[in-house]
Amino acid sequence: MNDWIFHLIEGGGYWGIAFLMVLENVFPPIPSELIMGVGGIAVAHGRMEVLPLMLSGTVGSTLGNYAWFVLGRSFGYERLRPFVTRWGRWLTLDWTGVEALVRFFRRHGQWVVFGMRFSPFMRTLISLPAGLARMGHVKFLAFTFAGATIWNALLVWAGFHLGRNFGELEKFTGPAALALIVAIGIAYMWRVMTWKPRLAGPGTDET
Length: 207
What we know:
It is a single chain. By secondary structure, this protein is an all-alpha fold. It has one domain. Helix content is about 75%, strand content about 0%. The protein is built from 8 helices and no strands. Residues about 200-205 have low confidence and may be disordered.
């Protein structure tokens, strides 16, 4: 995988970066840390310029996220009702909760989208609920682009200053990511054990 990424960046230049960043957000196992880190190394060696690198990487990242957003927006959260009715216990979510989340996303979801650009695990997945909640296209694109710009700048900086040793960042990001996964897992299990569906209010159709 890594050799293929290196060859594509060497042969494709900025277009290769953009293509890989689209793939990274459609198929998350491809690491943006490696793609933009290698771009930073290329800048340090004089083979790339910072601004075209940032533009190609950020546009690619935004387009990849937009694909998931459009999929969610086309599907619509209303179609999830049978699934929530059947699996709500394990989702720790009833339909009243779904509608509350949708309202929250429509009001404040842009900040969630922005913040999740810095999460290794949720930066792509968050695009789907944003689409399901029918967030505006312009709002989604603007906040995704802004968050991706900052994240990519950090990766390019790491590649530029650390060179081929930019993998040392994993000494810090790896344990932090593992701790986050464990904390999320514990919180989820606690919520499953203690969750109770809300009673339907007057006039609510709960069948």
